[in-house]
Design a protein that fits this description.
InterPro entries: DUF4434, GH. By secondary structure, the protein is of the alpha/beta class. The protein is built from twelve helices and twelve strands.
């Protein structure tokens, strides 16, 4: 049965794409990373920059983080220095919606933060002390409470599109019931916190597969997680740029994931990675347009909206010749496929639940 999936995928792909061959929709959104060394006037978030990305199809920008690093490392400098406010103002001027990310902590994947601390069925014993993971996530939650309090006023901004929980969930660290129970408790608390600030506003989180979990199990994992936590939408990173999945593996993962989430009433957006191996002085650089078109065609089968990672860094005409080449290809795609792009964007605007 598993061997029939590629054939089934090709049939679905032929039915899903527009009549014009090779014409999937361009990404309807893009991630954006801001760093502390990008000082005023925050040139990467000007209205002119957002207009360039909007011309490539992006109707929504996901600010990947509003705080970066371990909890307590810095006091929300991107907020205090005016970067988040500037991004929202630029979004309002450009007619682009802005989804605000919470803290991104690279320490999430620290092995010390993934010990068990719970019995195999996911229940804490009365005498068991908190595990490293429970202690870490409790610290994260306290930090998120302070961060959301600082971000709360922005939820009333005209350009505000929703929230993004910046914890990227992989398929290797959360396989046991114990870890899943701890993770679900933490994410449910964060979702409750965000709902208390802006009731009814869409909440998203992202995840990626390394091929560790089988496709059906991975789809069930996310259906259960979103249902248990009250999070609305999954941003599924296709993993092609990062090397987590091969192009031939995506057809096995995308259809069951899309079907499972849709049946459970949750939203899905496919994150198309626009980067690949870089030159001598960079870890990653802009991908070849031909490869990105393959990724977009694969994502089109789900009929879910696509979000790029990321136009500002890998497909902006002002970011060098390779980025300009990819930007030109996406601009042509946007011009040639406006109807499908509009339809997918309308799907993105719908709440996940």
């Amino acid at each position: 049965m598993h061997g029939l999936l590629p054939l089934l995928f090709l049939l679905l792909l032929a039915a899903a794409l527009p009549a014009k061959a090779g014409c999937p929709a361009p990404p309807q959104g893009s991630f954006l990373q801001l760093y502390l060394d990008q000082g005023p006037p925050w040139e990467h978030t000007s209205a002119q920059a957002l207009q360039r990305w909007k011309a490539l199809g992006a109707q929504e920008i996901v600010l990947q983080w509003s705080a970066h690093g371990s909890p307590g490392d810095e006091r929300f400098a991107l907020i205090e220095r005016g970067a988040v406010q500037a991004l929202l103002e630029a979004g309002a001027q450009a007619g682009v919606r802005i989804r605000l990310g919470l803290r991104y902590d690279p320490g999430l994947w620290d092995p010390r933060n993934h010990d068990e601390g719970r019995s195999a069925d996911g229940h804490t014993t009365v005498t068991a002390p908190p595990s490293e993971l429970e202690t870490y996530l409790a610290r994260r939650l306290r930090d998120q409470e302070a961060l959301v309090a600082a971000l709360g006023p922005f939820a009333n901004h005209l350009a505000f599109a929703g929230w993004y929980i910046a914890d990227e969930i992989d398929d290797r660290n959360w396989t046991s019931p114990a870890r899943r129970a701890v993770l679900n408790d933490y994410l449910a608390d964060v979702a409750d916190l965000l709902h208390s600030v802006a009731p009814g506003v869409d909440i998203a989180i992202s995840g990626f597969s390394t091929g560790w979990m089988p496709p059906q199990e991975w789809a069930a994992f996310w259906t259960d997680l979103l249902t248990a936590t009250g999070i609305d939408r999954l941003y599924f990173q296709d993993g092609i740029g990062a090397g987590h999945l091969e192009m031939t593996e995506l057809p096995h993962y995308l259809p069951p994931l899309a079907e499972g989430l849709q049946q459970a009433g949750h939203g899905l957006s496919v994150v198309v990675e626009l980067f690949g191996a870089g030159g001598q002085d960079e870890a990653f650089g802009p991908a070849d347009p031909e490869r990105v078109m393959q990724q977009l065609a694969l994502a089109a089968v789900t009929r879910a909206p696509t979000v790029s990672f990321a136009l500002p860094h890998y497909a902006d005409s002002e970011e060098g010749p390779r980025a300009a080449r990819l930007a030109a290809a996406l601009a042509e795609l946007t011009a040639n496929c406006p109807a499908r792009s509009k339809a997918q964007h309308e799907n993105q605007d719908q709440p996940g639940r």
